[in-house]
Specification:
Helix content is 48%, strand content 23%. By secondary structure, it is an alpha+beta fold.
Length: 168
Amino acid sequence: MSNLIAVGFNNAADAFEMRAALVKLQTQYLIEMEDAVVVTRDEKGKVQLHQAVNLTAAGAAGGAFWGMLIGMLFLNPLIGAAVGAGSGALSGKLADLGINDQFMKDLGATLTPGSSALFVLVRNSTPDKVLEGLKPFAGKGRVLQTSLTKDREDDLRKFMEGGQNPQS
């Protein structure tokens, strides 16, 4: 079962930097994320989602490949690629993998203008090593919401909000 963690920051840079740090930890096999999205609220109050993967572009590329392949079978690869790219882009745009976009927009609307939040859907992790890798962010954020157990959530709050490592 995956766990949702939402951490708020006073600026957008910290959320993007923490997402990059989590991606680095994922390449070291210390955390397995299903989704990681930065939500920003600009000075005018507009909420924007910054997905880690552009599903529309990925769908278009995949659709173009399969469309071209099918088009080659019927001796018209260009039409096949165009139709495939269009249908792939549409399916990518309509797909909502990972964290529910409306949930993130609703929570993002509660952020103060100029701030951000990082939403992470974690499938598996080694918590003590992940917190060690996230030391530069200790004390910089606040936990907005989690689906962690009470003890794990308390440890994360101490780390993010108080800047102290719960294992210390």
